[in-house]
Write a structure and sequence with these properties.
Largest sheet: 6 strands, mixed
Strand order of the largest sheet: 6-5-4-7-8-11
Length: 285
């Protein structure tokens, strides 16, 4: 049962997403065809070559001409929202926490898929896959899924992106759309990444903190790994920006070499416009 605060939050997220969706962002999931389907569209005149199984004999008798039933074919796809919930995602150097951005983004993607009449599933991971919600299409299912995104408490702190990739590589379902949300600060397995990207449409959403993009030139600092608790002294007099930039460039090049489209999002900065453009350009129609 959703409490009032959570229900209000999810309703607001759904309404926000609806405003952004002026057209199906993940491609038009329903198309007009002749023949079998799931949703009745209209009656129309018979033309040579039509399947006689779809002649509506009663309507044809009343109209005194041959009429066939036309349908909208249901092409619902499986969309998985894959979310990194390790301790590093909780890092915050400013007023907006990265974890809040990750949750908002994951919720928006779930509602975008739902509005596109696709089946939506969820995978939450740390060093292992902690939660899997199989894809489904109902509004109640999506509400429950988004609630899980906002309320789930991870069992582990460290990250291993190979865990969800290995799980996804074993999916027997037809080609799916995989929305992978992480800071991608662990070492990616290129072979596994490429395998999943060949079998499915894999989209990466890299969420970064502002300090991971621009870091002030300072003196000696003690850095603590938020996942392991290990501390290390770093000479901040050297430009750490070069180190961060180099790492992010290397990770993005790895994603691109595996043919994975990537959108960078920075906590505290508006991202909805970039998200809309990215989804329209990169997803399978």
């Amino acid at each position: 049962m959703l409490n009032a605060e959570m229900r209000s939050l999810i309703h607001h997220l759904e309404l926000t997403t609806k405003k952004l969706v002026s057209g199906p962002l993940l491609g038009n999931s329903r198309s007009m065809i002749k023949g079998s389907g799931f949703e009745f569209l209209q009656l129309r005149d018979y033309v040579q070559g039509d399947d006689i199984r779809f002649i509506d004999w009663k309507a044809s008798t009343r109209a005194n001409k041959m009429l066939v039933r036309q349908y909208l074919e249901d092409r619902m796809r499986n969309v998985y929202i894959v979310v990194d919930i390790s301790a590093s995602i909780g890092y915050c150097s400013g007023t907006v926490s990265r974890i809040d951005v990750v949750k908002q983004l994951a919720g928006m993607l779930a509602f975008v898929a739902h509005h596109s009449k696709d089946l939506v599933g969820l995978i939450l991971y740390t060093s292992e896959v902690e939660m899997v919600i199989p894809p489904s299409a109902s509004r109640a299912h999506v509400f429950s899924l988004v609630q899980t995104i906002f309320t789930y408490k991870p069992r582990h702190r460290t990250t291993d992106s190979s865990a969800p990739l290995a799980y996804l590589s074993r999916l027997k379902a037809k080609k799916a759309i995989l929305c992978f949300i992480s800071d991608f600060n662990d070492i990616l397995d290129k072979q596994l990444l490429s395998l999943v990207a060949r079998r499915h449409e894999l989209l990466a959403f890299r969420c970064l903190d502002e300090r991971e993009r621009t870091f002030p030139s300072v003196g000696s600092l003690i850095f603590e790994d938020s996942e392991t608790g290990i501390q290390q002294e770093v000479d901040g007099s050297k430009d750490l920006n070069e180190t961060f930039t180099g790492w992010h460039r290397k990770q993005k090049e790895l994603l691109q070499s595996a043919k994975v489209a990537c959108l960078d999002i920075t906590a505290g900065k508006e991202f909805t416009g970039d998200l809309v453009r990215f989804l329209r350009q990169k997803t399978v129609v």
